[in-house]
Design goal:
- By secondary structure, the protein is mainly alpha-helical.
- It has 2 domains: 65 residues, Winged helix-like DNA-binding domain superfamily/Winged helix DNA-binding domain (Arc Repressor Mutant, subunit A), CATH 1.10.10; 36 residues, no CATH class.
- It contains 6 helices and 2 strands.
- Strands 1-2 form a two-stranded antiparallel sheet.
Amino acid sequence: MMKKPKPNALARRERQIMDVLYKLERATVAEVLRKLADQPSYSTVRAQLRILEEKGHVRHEEHGLRYVYVPTVPLDIARRSALRHLVETFFEGSAENLVATLLGGKISRISREELDRLARLFAKDRKES
């Protein structure tokens, strides 16, 4: 039985590898290796992918002599899970605190277009609830 993956249970290198896999959607060890910034060894990446598979984050398909790795959780679900963890951990479970931090912070500037899209999302959510 496959374990249910936990987004916060990833080491830094594992997160980097998952980022590559989500961008490429599926990749061999060599393809992941080419996308990593600080170029670990081939065997290190292969070992990390095996660990990610044991943790339930990826699965592999055999294509000839190569293993092609694929994330087990769709990106949109992984995003929601990671965001939920972030909100619970740093914002006392409050979406309002998260949005207030984004809007009031100097870390990320939100453009007028982004604010307009957010306003439409809020209006749609209000209408639906």
